[in-house]
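USER: I would love a firmer grasp of how sequence relates to backbone shape in proteins. This is the protein in question:
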Amino acid sequence: MSDPVPAAKPSNVALIASLCLNLILIGVIAMGAWRAYQAPPPPPMEPDGFFPMHALMRLAPDKADAIHKILDAHRDRLRALHEAAMKARADAHAEIADPNFNQAKFDAALVRVQVADQAFESELLKMISECVAQLSPEERKAVAEHHAQHPGTRWHRHGERHKFQN
């Protein structure tokens, strides 16, 4: 009788390659998720819902370049002011979490939040003013009509909320 010939072992190369590719894919996904979590959200470069600059550019397309230049001129300042406001908020949250909570320190942190927010809003309104100043009377009328037709903007909501009652 002859000795049985042992069967050839299947190659594990494909299995190892698949395992390596899966590990690399998991690493890439994990790194992307970590970077997305770590990166601060970009600050709003326009007052979303308040006075959208894209609406100005759509209603006055011939002024879009001038409006873009104004937005670019304010972008760095707005970003810095937004970061300062976010830092002031983080500091206020840190005061809340401090085991040795101090009401005076917390109140001072809230004042810093208010000052930072006011500085950001002031720059934002300055930018809006400069953009609107680029428009002709007819274009400003079109913008006003646009806002009248879209009552979901913050100007309308803010005004409705703060109406005085007789």
